[in-house]
Design goal:
Elements: H1 34-48, H2 52-57, H3 69-82, E1 83-84, E2 91-93, E3 98-101, E4 103-106, H4 118-127, E5 131-134, E6 138-142, E7 160-171, H5 175-187, H6 190-193, E8 205-212, E9 214-215, H7 229-232, E10 238-243, E11 246-250, E12 254-261, E13 272-273, E14 276-277, E15 279-288, E16 293-295, H8 303-309, H9 318-334, H10 344-355, H11 364-367, H12 375-390, H13 395-400, E17 410-414, H14 421-437, E18 444-450, H15 459-468, H16 478-490, H17 498-502, E19 507-513, H18 524-538, E20 544-551, H19 562-568, E21 572-574, H20 580-590, H21 599-612, H22 616-635, H23 652-663, H24 666-672, H25 676-692, H26 701-715, H27 726-739, E22 743-745, E23 759-761, H28 766-772, H29 779-786
Length: 792
């Protein structure tokens, strides 16, 4: 379970060693306790400078430890008397036995206040005045009820700490109650949903997820900050720090509300609310509990959204997040006047945001439905994941009979870029989350990793362990993280009751996007990531693992070692490029919330995309550029009257202009006039990008020279022979880099062999190079190595 804040996690004697120039396998592990010793030294130095009260404060992170039966029974009595929910839940998860709420009602614990007015408190008690606690509220929570011996702190007769309420839920014992709640949530009218929750049971426990707000004495060195004499005359409020430190606690820990101000010399308006003492704090800084450092912070208005990012539930569960957003949106609509006009600029801003590539698949988890033109692939991925999560036909069942293991916990997904691979997988996961909430499938965790976002393939171990370590989010070295993952999924020896326990193990679904970037010299990163699912299903491990790998290269498994191919198995899902009809349907669905495009414009964008590459991202870029152009022209009054009530629209002529800029840029015209050796370099780079499946990252000069030699000799054209030497290649690369045709980047420190030569990237796709060289003397070269390839 969870460790305390100051305690270092004990390392096993089998930790993996790490060499920047060498791959390694978790089966060969060595001793490396350097990180533990560092943590212990840091912890010791902190404890020497803190009082006993501050030492005890660290134990509040231990909220995930299971309470004793006596403590649990006491908490139930307290909850029954002074904590309840007054509204229907916004989400019900039958598989986990939880219902989630946006608020709860609390009778203030007047006996926990030191400076209390007994007459005033009795007045509020007789009136049954309740304190409503909503998501995002800042409160004071008691943490000494967990068994920590600490002196109370004024103004409460208990040890306390400020925090922010991130999520609220109720743990249900009876499944019938959950079924009633879910039926009410789905079928009952809105008028009945607002009523009091009628499914209250004395055995139900109301819990909270809180984000701690650290005080100065909680952060090493922060209490030593000195202010000038002029500042000391202005300081009125104690400072607290926002953190990424999340814990769970009983709702009975609530003591009183607090107020957070953005100015240090703010003047508090009141110090009492319903007889409760109200503390006032000042906050302008963020302390990262996991990084142990101060990090930049945005506006205090975004505090609630920042808290949800670190939530264990809202941060991972897209379905829960979508349900909360829908509930908050419905609440805001009730308090918003329907007479507010919708300006045409708002529609353009919405369309531009929707068409942004960073937001291209953001709505897939919310929909949970198959993407247009991807029904077959959606069904295949959904069937695989549902079967793997439920444990039906798992490798464990084969292990019991003694037969050879069948690997069906890994799926390989491939297809050209921009064909909806990632969006489809995320949409499937979102739909499975909904089935999990209904209790139809077991609980599972979803961990997405993108190889393009990692500095080095070994960082996949670090990110993976950080994701499955819960709210601790342990940041470990690659070797240590690999060893921990090996112990978590590798387990011990195979047991005879593996089949009986397989379905009881928690399931983790790992999405490996852009796995082309995880290929190393010895390929051990991919080997371990695809080997753990099979071992976790058959051994005495702490959980089961299901892996979905996504690549832009269709034949990537054939280029891997046989040991990895055997663990990938024969399950593959191949995505075809989008045709005109599919691209048109996607654009229509995508732009439905912002209807600013004419039908002819959408059809032209779909047709242009299908003819060139089938990459739907090109259609998004084209439409976004056209919308930005029309909006800019309308703002300056060009071709549009500001007094018009209908607003401007994007026509087919606007899409045509954007298409010419996107598919016929200046770089393409420069490539069409390239010399023989320049064309050889450009075509070789384009071929490397397609073969490796990498869209970013660049290639070493040595790798490029080897590719050029093979290309020139296989073509046999004298104008490319002999291929350029190393010095000539560097000279041509510098010339092309200055012209903007290619990008030369500084190599990272982990580049193979420690080379200081630049990494070369071509900012063009294969089809763009082939189109630029079409009709030139290099057309045979581009047709041979850059022409579109069919999938079968």
């Amino acid at each position: 379970r969870r460790e305390t804040q100051g305690d270092a996690i004990k390392e096993d004697s089998t930790n993996a060693s790490f060499d920047a120039n060498e791959d390694w396998n978790v089966s060969g592990l060595s001793n490396d306790n350097e990180e533990d010793e560092t943590l212990k030294m840091q912890h010791g130095s902190v404890l020497e400078n803190r009082s006993n009260q501050k030492e005890n404060r660290n134990t509040r992170v231990d909220q995930e430890k299971l309470p004793t039966q006596d403590t649990l029974a006491t908490s139930k009595v307290i909850l029954e008397r002074r904590i309840w929910t007054s509204s229907s839940p916004y989400h019900v998860d039958i598989s986990s036995g939880r219902s989630y709420y946006t608020s709860l009602e609390v009778l203030p614990p007047y006996d926990s206040y030191i400076d209390r007015d007994k007459d005033e408190n009795e007045k509020y008690k007789k009136q049954n005045k309740c304190w409503t606690v909503s998501l995002g509220d800042t409160v004071v929570a008691e943490w000494s009820h967990l068994g920590v011996s600490a002196e109370p702190r004024h103004p409460f007769a208990a040890q306390w700490a400020p925090c922010e309420v991130v999520s609220i839920w109720k743990n249900h014992i009876c499944k019938d109650e959950l079924m009633k709640l879910r039926k009410n949530l789905l079928h009952v009218s809105d008028e009945k949903k607002v009523g009091v929750d009628s499914t209250h049971n004395e055995s139900d426990i109301i819990m909270m997820e809180v984000r701690w707000l650290y005080e100065k004495h909680d952060i090493p060195g922060a209490a030593k900050t000195q202010h000038s004499e002029e500042d000391n005359t202005k300081i009125k409020l104690e400072e607290v720090f926002e953190t990424d430190h999340i814990n769970e606690c009983y709702a009975s820990a609530l003591l009183a509300p607090i107020t957070i101000h953005s100015e240090i010399n703010a003047n508090p308006s009141t110090n009492r609310y319903l007889g409760m003492p109200v503390k006032h704090f000042f906050c302008e800084r963020f302390w990262s509990y996991h990084r142990k450092s101060l990090v930049p912070i945005g506006s205090i208005k975004n505090r609630i959204n920042r808290g949800r990012l670190y939530s264990r539930y809202l941060g991972k569960d897209g379905v829960l997040q979508a349900a909360l957003n829908e509930s908050l949106r419905a609440h805001n609509d009730e308090h918003t006047s329907s007479t507010i006009s919708f300006h045409w600029k708002d529609a353009f801003h919405d369309a531009i945001k929707i068409l942004s590539l960073c937001d291209a698949s953001a709505d897939a988890p919310a929909r949970g439905l198959a993407l247009p033109g991807r029904d077959k692939e959606y069904h295949q991925i959904s069937t695989f994941l549902r079967t793997a999560i439920c444990g039906v036909g798992s490798a464990a069942s084969v292990c019991k009979s003694g037969e050879e293991l069948s690997v069906n916990s890994a799926l390989f997904v491939a297809g050209p870029p921009g064909t909806g691979k990632t969006a489809t997988v995320r949409s499937v996961v979102a739909n499975l989350r909904r089935e999990q909430a209904k209790g139809e499938i077991p609980e599972f965790d979803f961990v997405p990793l993108n190889g393009m976002e990692l500095r080095h393939p070994f960082d996949a171990y670090v990110k993976f362990w950080e994701a499955i370590s819960g709210t601790r989010k342990e940041k470990r070295s690659p070797g240590t993280a690999a060893a921990m993952l090996e112990r978590h999924f590798g387990g011990g020896d195979t047991k005879d009751d593996a089949y009986a326990t397989a379905k009881k193990k928690p399931v983790t679904v790992l999405l490996l996007d852009e796995i082309d970037y995880l290929v190393t010299k010895k390929q051990t990163v991919l080997y371990n990531l695809f080997d753990w699912p099979m071992r976790a299903a058959t051994c005495d491990s702490k959980g089961r693992l299901v892996v979905v790998g996504i690549s832009n290269t269709i034949n990537m498994p054939e280029r891997l070692k046989p040991s990895i191919q055997s663990r990938l198995g024969g399950k593959r899902c191949i995505f075809q490029a989008y045709n005109k009809e599919d691209a048109k349907r996607i654009l229509e669905v995508k732009l439905k919330p912002a209807p600013i495009f004419e039908n002819d414009a959408i059809e032209f964008a779909a047709r242009k995309t299908a003819v060139n590459s089938g990459d739907i991202r090109r259609a998004f870029q084209m439409c976004k550029a056209a919308a930005e152009r029309v909006m800019a022209e309308a703002e300056y009054g060009k071709g549009f009257s500001q007094n018009s009530s209908s607003g401007p629209t994007v026509q087919i002529s606007d899409i045509q202009k954007a298409s010419r800029e996107l598919f016929n840029p200046v770089i393409a015209r420069a490539v069409s006039h390239a010399t023989s050796l320049e064309a050889l370099i450009i075509v070789s780079l384009a071929s490397l990008q397609r073969q490796s499946g990498r869209e970013m990252g660049g290639f070493d000069v040595d790798e490029l020279i080897s590719k050029m030699e093979g290309t020139a000799r296989s073509l046999g054209d004298l104008q490319y022979l002999p291929p350029p030497s190393f010095a000539e290649t560097l000279d041509i690369l510098n010339r092309l880099g200055e012209a903007g045709v290619i990008q030369l980047d500084t190599p990272k420190i982990y580049s193979v062999g420690g080379s200081t030569w630049p990494l070369v990237t071509l900012p063009m796709d294969c089809y763009e190079v082939e189109a630029a060289l079409r009709g030139t003397r290099h057309s045979r070269l581009s047709d041979t190595f850059c022409a579109p390839q069919t999938l079968f």
